[in-house]
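Lab manual, section 2.4: Encoding a predicted structure.

Procedure: take the sequence of the chain (190 residues), apply the prediction step described in section 2.3, and record the output as structure tokens. A sample record is shown.
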Amino acid sequence: MNFSAWNVRGLWGDGKLRMVKDLKKKYSLNMLGLIETKRQVVTNFDVARIWGRDDLGWEYVSSDGASGGLLLIWDESVFKMNEKCHVWEELSYIAGLCQVPCCFMGDFNEIVHVEERKGATTVPRSGKEFRNWIQDMQLVDLALTDCDFTWFRGRSCSHIDRALVNVEWLEVFPETWLRGGQGNCQIIAP
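Recorded output:
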């Protein structure tokens, strides 16, 4: 994660806004804190000029006349991902407490390979983190046997529903497989 704080000594004029925007772009910032904005009001339009219209969050503290003022802008996708990481940590804790066959099944709302989303060219950062979690937990992501995707909306489709099992599960249920379809997934453990 990349972040920066800068005493901008006034966030006025196109030149200063362009400098801040260039800083964000040059360093691929996920969070930016601007100090001494000297602005009593900051609007969505102001923030969009700095950050772009991507998935963002922001808060500000207004200046006191011509002194002070804070503006904090962040990439929502990075911080939402951290909420997901918390869920994955909780699942890790639960699995660690009981050394029994485990199966985590559901809509994880993540792809882990580019071919799991129609038209995708990259795996998002949160998907890479999810893939790392699967590997760290030594889970097996059961392959779909009858289709490529589990979620459909119009022309969009993705493989975001999955069943993740541990080795203990496969020792007890070695013939487990996953069947998918529009709007549902079924784990088959004969």
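Check your result against the sample. The radius of gyration is 22 Å.
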